[in-house]
Amino acid sequence: MTHALSTHLFVNHRLTVALLAKIQQLGIPLVEIFCARQHLDYRNKAQVAELGHWFRDSDLKLHSLHSPMYNDEIWGRSGPHAVVTITEPVKSKRLEMVDEIKRALETSEVIPFRYLIQHVGVSGEEFDLAKVDAACAALEELHLFARQRGVEILLENIPNDLSTAERLLQFEELTHLHLNFCFDTGHANMAAGVESTYGRMKPRIRSTHIHDNNGKDDNHLAPLLSEGGTVDWKAAMGLLRSREDQYPLLLELKDRNDHPNPLDSVLPIFERLEEQ
What DSSP assignment string belongs to 157-185? Predict the structure, then answer.
């Protein structure tokens, strides 16, 4: 399968061309950049321009951008006002959040990419029809804005009652926006399970987030390397290979702060996954 890596692994550090060069040296062809302003400040034209210049001469290609979850530079710790969610029912507040996502999408004008990975709601959020209506309104606007820039929005299954595989399919029926999906193995493992979730989402999967957990905590463990993972990777890889032309195998790992060189584990993870 085609291999890809999310810069989520370095989300607490500024994204630089030096870091991208290290990823390229691993021979990985695709990268997903996580839009967190302490990492990629998509409103900072100088940083975006520097990265864009590097990508133009690079074999590493930008596959996708992960939509911002917070508008501050400290991972939402400045307060509840920092949360960016398309399920905000108050229109004036939601429009501010839509604008924040648009600023991230404008990165494509400097660094072309194919997909924007979008959450519907936040972790643990309960189902509410008013929130569904809000998300529909937001996505109608964002879908048009993205399409004008050659970008496709993918909805990700996340651990809440708005983003299970069933809810995402219902959402597509309601909106008729023909949105496709990003399949997250770790989030599936915390919900109905990898097999069940994949089975419902598979015709529309266009990208992936590959990571492990204990079935309860979204801790983005390294598949087949970290202790405590509970995903059956032999079964999962069998499923993923059944439609491998639709998407890459994209690792979305978390820096555990216990390894000085977190990139060292990336190739061994891919090797072990491919052996399954």
Answer: --SSTTSSHHHHHHHHHHH----EEEEEH
Going by C-beta distance under 8 Å and a sequence separation of 6 or more, which residues neighbour residue 80?
none
Average pLDDT, the chain: 96
Evaluated on CA atoms 99, 63, 221, 202, the torsion sign reads positive
Residue identified by tokens 């987030």 is: 209
* Alpha carbon distance 86, 83 (integer Å): 10
CATH code, domain carrying 111: 3.20.20.150
Q: How many domains does the chain have?
A: 1
Whole-model pTM: value is 0.98
Which of 2, 42, 1, 8 shows the shortest CA–CA distance to 255?
Answer: 8
**∠ Cα 207 213 218 (to 5°):** 75
Which residues fall within 8 angstroms of residue 44, CB to CB, at 6 or more apart?
none
188-211 confidence digits (pLDDT tens):
999 999 999 999 999 999 999 999
Count Cα neighbours of 232 within 13 Å in the Cβ-side half-sphere: 8
